[in-house]
């Protein structure tokens, strides 16, 4: 007699044993040792960069990716008379690299898809570039069936078809459409969100206004964005590197990461009905945001980073405050996290839900904690450590199961690692000073990348022959998370929608908010 | 059981008294020096990314409805006339009340509305209208209802459906006609006596990313908000305090 097969995710006999094994299994990957290693900033004179024709550019790009390079950003600038200038920023084992190419309006550009899919969709949408080659993976038509019902869980506003919403059906414009039979999600369709082109405004504004504008761009992570901006501007202006200043910024970045992860854990706890854990995470979230506020005046880290240095230096009083607050926080979080990640009911609810295999995660181009939960050790603090993370290496964790439990446990570990990192090196932030910056170098390109809470934040700046900004691209990791969520939901149960969404740090309609 | 009872009391999860809470370190209410500015000086004006400053005959006036609290003006002022204090009570019942300057040091306190108190004093359900913008306002507004700031203790809650709500909280830039349309539809879906609140520099003043004067703001021309909560993003206590003042809560 053959055993009945089941489509449910494979589960081990005793979840407690399995969970125990999983919580001790993550491997810590430390930063590459040695001097002169890869830095998170690349500055190059535009005239020194060979400009490949479109076909050759894409061929070279796919050669690079098959050789193991990771594409951080793939961007196009409309150059009216001669087509679109393409720029790709790659992380190779030796560091950051850049490639330039030119696509013509009248010839379709070959497409690579795979991990580049999200970038290519953006190119098509934003620049109307035609891409030839295998089409993006469409809805699985073969498995669709007229008996399936479909809905937009986060789309209560006018839909893509222009259907007028009834009164009260409002507020959210989400990018997922779910096709379900009963409570099984059979297929997920991802649609493009209308985007406001806020970046176009950036090149028209005075340089001094940019930090405040960058901090209020779309997406969470003001410190990470401001740091990427400051790095790029300092690179173009030839500012000196100051370790104290880098530590100061790193402290803000890690506090921001802790706050984002805590908010995510709290939402996840609420989604599974674990109210006590949620409330405790929310209290700790307020503690960390308030500490950030005492360092720079804003709970969201606005003003913590300014090009050329820091504005609110850390003195003895602030240093003592950081140490005392984080020492208390560390103990409180250890208890609260043990409560949540040690509860059998919590583990049971999260284990095996929304799993993504490592191979799929790679093909989807996942970044940040969701990628690390699938066993991909992508973290710019390790891949492009620069002077700061070479001196103060930070533990980067990976998990291998790629499910909601893995994503939650990665976050919990990253919170602990971030707090330990701050406590170990915050003393070196004392004495950071602002410096005056010269003008920007003309006809240069700067690419700066910072690992934010949800993945790499990449800023790509180009100057014209007068040293004014010609092009600005600020890339948010949010664009990679939605395809990941779609993949995690496919084949699962509809009741896992909220849990999966929160585990990717994305929220759907029932929370009353839009996509980010 | 006995060990649990004898053990140390856990720290309270909710903020004990939000009405009395202070926010040390916050860059809140701007403090503009009394001494008048030199006639020829306008160094702070071009430094402001949000066009929130205006020169008056003797000093400067600062529009909290536009200010993103970047403090670049404080750095630019050679006379050090502008600083930012930790006061978080910034909400105002009128748009004009948000402009601070020599004649008005702070937004006038929000007066309690007896009718609103009667209706919503015990239970108020609010819905948020997401119009884009950065994530800041949304994060802080959610925090108002979480286990720490816990405005639920006054019966104020977030709901998902406009049909079940008593009030609408708008944040994010109201830029396009479509945004106005969306707001009108949500507003229409909220039946009966209702409350309109505008939150953050984007919704109140058009936001730092706006190019020139705000274009489509028809919705706010038709319906004046009963409460303006400035900030970028506002501190959760700014929102909670302003709302409780409006409802006349103790
Ligand atoms: S703090 Fe406000 S008034 Fe001052 S420069 Fe920034 S936005 Fe303008
Ligand atoms: S007002 Fe400020 S915090 Fe709120 S959405 Fe606009 S930019 Fe973001």
TrEMBL record, chain B:
Domain of life (superkingdom): Bacteria
One Pfam entry for this protein is Oxidored_q6
Q: Which family does it belong to?
A: Belongs to the complex I 20 kDa subunit family. Belongs to the FrhG family.
Q: Could you tell me the keywords of this UniProt record?
A: 4Fe-4S, Iron, Iron-sulfur, Metal-binding
Needed cofactors: [4Fe-4S] cluster
PANTHER family given for it?
Answer: FORMATE HYDROGENLYASE SUBUNIT 7-RELATED, HYDROGENASE-4 COMPONENT I
4Fe-4S ferredoxin-type domain residues: 28-53, 58-87
PROSITE patterns referenced in this protein's UniProt entry, alphabetically: 4FE4S_FER_1, 4FE4S_FER_2
- Recorded protein name is Hydrogenase
């Amino acid at each position: 007699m053959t055993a009945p097969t089941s489509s449910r995710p494979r589960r081990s006999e005793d979840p407690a044993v399995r969970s125990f094994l999983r919580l001790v299994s993550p491997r810590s990957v430390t930063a590459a040792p040695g001097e002169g290693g890869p830095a998170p900033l690349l500055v190059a004179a535009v005239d020194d960069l060979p400009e490949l024709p479109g076909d050759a550019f894409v061929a070279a790009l796919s050669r690079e990716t098959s050789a193991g390079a990771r594409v951080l950003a793939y961007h196009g600038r409309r150059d009216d008379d001669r087509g679109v200038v393409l720029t790709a920023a790659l992380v190779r084992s030796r560091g950051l690299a850049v490639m330039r190419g030119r696509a013509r309006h009248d010839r379709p550009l070959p497409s690579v898809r795979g991990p580049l899919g999200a970038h290519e969709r953006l190119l098509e949408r934003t620049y109307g570039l035609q891409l030839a080659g295998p089409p993006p993976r469409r809805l699985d038509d073969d498995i669709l069936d007229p008996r399936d019902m479909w809905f937009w869980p986060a789309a209560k506003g006018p839909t893509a078809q222009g259907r007028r919403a009834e009164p009260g059906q409002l507020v959210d414009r989400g990018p997922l459409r779910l096709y379900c039979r009963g409570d099984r999600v059979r297929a997920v369709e991802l649609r493009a969100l209308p985007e406001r082109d806020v970046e176009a405004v950036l090149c028209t504004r005075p340089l001094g206004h940019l930090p405040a504008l960058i901090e209020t761009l779309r997406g969470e992570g003001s410190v990470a964005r401001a740091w990427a901006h400051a790095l790029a501007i300092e690179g173009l202006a030839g500012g000196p590197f100051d370790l104290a200043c880098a530590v100061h910024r790193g402290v803000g970045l890690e506090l921001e990461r802790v706050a984002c992860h805590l908010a995510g854990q709290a939402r996840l706890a609420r989604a599974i009905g674990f109210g006590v854990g949620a409330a405790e995470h929310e209290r700790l979230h307020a503690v960390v945001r308030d500490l950030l506020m005492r360092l720079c005046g804003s709970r969201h880290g606005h003003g913590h980073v300014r090009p050329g240095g820091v504005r609110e230096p850390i003195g003895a009083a602030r240093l003592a405050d950081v140490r005392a607050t984080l020492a208390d926080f560390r103990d409180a979080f250890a208890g609260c996290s043990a409560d949540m990640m040690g509860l059998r009911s919590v583990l049971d609810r999260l284990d095996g839900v929304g799993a993504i295999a490592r191979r799929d995660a790679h093909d989807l181009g996942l970044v940040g904690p969701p990628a690390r939960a699938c066993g991909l050790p992508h973290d710019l603090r390790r891949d492009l450590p620069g002077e700061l993370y070479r001196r103060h290496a930070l533990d980067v964790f990976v998990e291998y199961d790629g499910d909601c439990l893995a994503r939650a446990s990665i976050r919990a570990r990253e919170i602990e690692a971030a707090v330990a990192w701050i406590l170990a090196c915050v003393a070196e932030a004392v004495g950071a000073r602002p410096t005056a910056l010269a003008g920007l170098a003309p006809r240069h390109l700067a690419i700066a990348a910072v690992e934010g809470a949800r993945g790499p934040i990449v800023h790509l700046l180009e100057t014209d022959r007068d040293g004014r900004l010609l092009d600005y691209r600020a890339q948010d990791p949010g664009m990679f998370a939605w395809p990941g969520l779609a993949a995690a939901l496919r084949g699962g149960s509809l009741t896992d929608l909220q849990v999966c969404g929160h585990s990717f740090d994305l929220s759907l309609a029932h929370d009353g908010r839009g996509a980010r | 059981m006995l060990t649990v009872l004898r053990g140390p009391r856990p720290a309270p999860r909710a903020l004990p008294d939000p009405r009395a809470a202070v926010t040390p370190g916050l860059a809140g209410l701007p403090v503009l020096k009394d001494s008048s500015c030199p006639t020829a000086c306008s160094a702070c004006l071009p430094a402001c990314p949000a066009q929130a400053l205006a020169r008056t005959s003797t000093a400067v006036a600062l529009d909290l409805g536009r200010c993103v609290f970047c403090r670049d003006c404080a750095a630019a002022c050679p006379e050090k006339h502008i600083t930012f204090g930790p006061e978080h009570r910034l909400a105002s019942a009128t748009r004009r009340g948000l402009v601070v300057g020599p004649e008005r040091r702070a937004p006038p306190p929000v007066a309690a509305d007896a009718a609103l108190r009667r209706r919503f004093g015990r239970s108020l359900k609010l819905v948020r209208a997401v119009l884009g913008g950065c994530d800041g306002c949304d994060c802080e507004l959610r925090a108002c209802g979480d286990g720490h700031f816990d405005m639920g203790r006054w019966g104020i809650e977030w709901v998902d459906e406009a049909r079940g709500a008593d009030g609408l909280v708008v944040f994010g830039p109201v830029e396009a006609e479509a945004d106005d349309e969306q707001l009108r539809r949500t507003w229409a879906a909220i039946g009966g006596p209702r409350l309109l609140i505008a939150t953050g520099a984007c919704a109140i003043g058009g936001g730092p990313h706006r190019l020139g004067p705000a274009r489509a703001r028809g919705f706010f021309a038709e319906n004046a908000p009963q409460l303006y909560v400035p900030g970028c993003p506002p501190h959760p206590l700014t929102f909670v305090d302003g709302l409780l003042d409006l409802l006349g809560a103790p």
